[in-house]
Amino acid sequence: MATPTPHTAPAGLRERKKQRTRDALIRAALELFTEQGYETTTIDEIAEAVDVSQRTYFRYFANKEDVAFAVQETVEARFLEALAARPAAEAPLTALRSAVTVAWDDIGDAIESVIPVELYMRSFRMIESTPALIAAHLRRSSEMEEQIARLIARREGLDMDTDPRPRVLVAAFGGVMRVAGQVWGEGQECSVASIRELTKSYLDHIGPAMEDDWRAR
Amino acid sequence: MATPTPHTAPAGLRERKKQRTRDALIRAALELFTEQGYETTTIDEIAEAVDVSQRTYFRYFANKEDVAFAVQETVEARFLEALAARPAAEAPLTALRSAVTVAWDDIGDAIESVIPVELYMRSFRMIESTPALIAAHLRRSSEMEEQIARLIARREGLDMDTDPRPRVLVAAFGGVMRVAGQVWGEGQECSVASIRELTKSYLDHIGPAMEDDWRAR
DNA sequence: GAGGCTAATGTCAGCCGCTGACAATTGACA
DNA sequence: TGTCAATTGTCAGCGGCTGACATTAGCCTC
């Protein structure tokens, strides 16, 4: 049995060329977005920077927003893999926490193969300060949470349609992840290690946050 | 001292006319959106139905999405008022729960003064099945949650920048509210009372959902 | 109640995101 | 090398959205 999902480089010249165009579009778009702003950047500019037609851009990305989340997509895929690999004995929240911790190690390389981490971080900030991208980000996150909740429900042998607990837990988890991302984006330390540690410590607050009387202690 | 916020009818003819145009645009838009779909409806159609120019539409609403959330806006305002009025002695989650319960009673009338509740419900379903509107809905919700978290933090005398608990609790609260809205939209019972009860019972799950071992029941 | 003021509206031109259709180019494979 | 299929470019066009300017219509004063 080989690796669950290879993450390998493609074979043919045609395929490699496509990959290069795609990566170039991502780099150019993020560079332009972070430098002059998302709204003021046009698709024509992105396409021109990579020397392809506007129509070609839309053959790689369905819309203007998508290119901003292309890297995030791989990050999320890695996390889902890591979560699915957690032992069934772990409690739900523990499994989520462990999966995040484990996944971040692989993720760094996956990001760096397309863009420098520093650009990834800048685009993070850009997303959080652009209303249209915030909306897209949240929608993506909620789809992600739906998948995660399904996974958790299956682990625990629960029916998501009648038991709201998977969704509720995952909603809290997702919220914490989002906040962690924001704080990381605003900070100075742009290493992958720093966001991993930030996430871990924030996740430790999920339990205590639900107590009734916060003023006691 | 008068009522905290009047919700009264405006005075001048000019003002009343504006209000009527606005309401007519909302009604026409929701009717068209729910009947033939959001994407396939054009602003020109909405404007024509109310017999105004397309440009006028954009003087009332900043974009195509906004008109779909016009009613929701009043709903949210009522909730915030209700929350601010809760006694300081209540625990955070209790205050949220009580505010929701109290607010729904006023909200029914506020909705009905613009559109029939049945249309409100249909538009709810429409929003949840339209990707672009889901994104907008989530962004609005997250802004709402930010406000709520701020309110909660102030009640408890906490600093939101250092203490993540307000955000985490409100994230869970917001998630549950969203799920309750979805379930209500998909159901048959389109009364305001039904969504109020649904919300109440769902909120009761927030505490238990955070336990470590769900299989211990 | 006539006239001036200002807010609301209509009209027009134009940018940009996005799509379908068709032609031109280029890698793949016999 | 020649055929086939995939990728790309070009073009036309729709719909969301905006600025600019002219027109209309409520408001307020004398």
What kind of sheet is the major sheet of chain A?
A: none
Structural class of chain A: mainly alpha
Q: Would you give the CATH topology of the domain at 63-210 in chain A? A: Tetracycline Repressor, domain 2
What is the average per-residue confidence, as pLDDT of chain A, rounded to a whole number? 88
Shape of chain A: globular
Low-confidence stretches of chain A: none
The value of Rg of chain A in angstroms is 19 Å
The amount of beta strand of chain A, in percent, is: under 5%
SSE order of chain A: HHHHHHHHH
CATH architecture of the domain at 63-210 in chain A: Orthogonal Bundle
Work out the oligomeric state of the chains in this entry.
Answer: homodimer
Distance between the termini of chain A: 52 Å
Largest protein interface, residues of each chain: A-B, 36 and 36 residues
Number of strands of chain A: 0
Q: In the CATH hierarchy, what is the superfamily of the domain at 63-210 in chain A?
A: Tetracycline Repressor, domain 2
Count of DSSP H/I helices of chain A: 9
CATH class of the domain at 63-210 in chain A reads Mainly Alpha
Helix content of chain A: 55-70%
Describe the protein's architecture and organization.
2 copies of one chain form a homodimer. Chain A has 217 residues and is mainly α. The first copy, chain A, has helices at 13-36, 43-50, 54-60, 70-84, 92-112, 117-128, 131-156, 165-186, 192-203. Chain A has a domain at 63-210: Tetracycline Repressor, domain 2, CATH 1.10.357.10. Helix content of chain A is 68%, strand content 0%. In chain A, helix 1 crosses helix 2, helix 5 packs antiparallel against helix 9 and helix 7 crosses helix 8 (165-186). Chain A is globular and about 50 Å long. The A-B interface holds A 91-94, 131, 134-136, 138-139, 142, 156-158, 164-165, 167-169, 171-172, 174-176, 179, 202, 205-210, 212-215 and B 91-94, 131, 134-136, 138-139, 142, 156-158, 164-165, 167-169, 171-172, 174-176, 179, 202, 205-210, 212-215. The first copy, chain A, binds a DNA duplex (30 and 30 nucleotides) through helix 1 and helix 3.
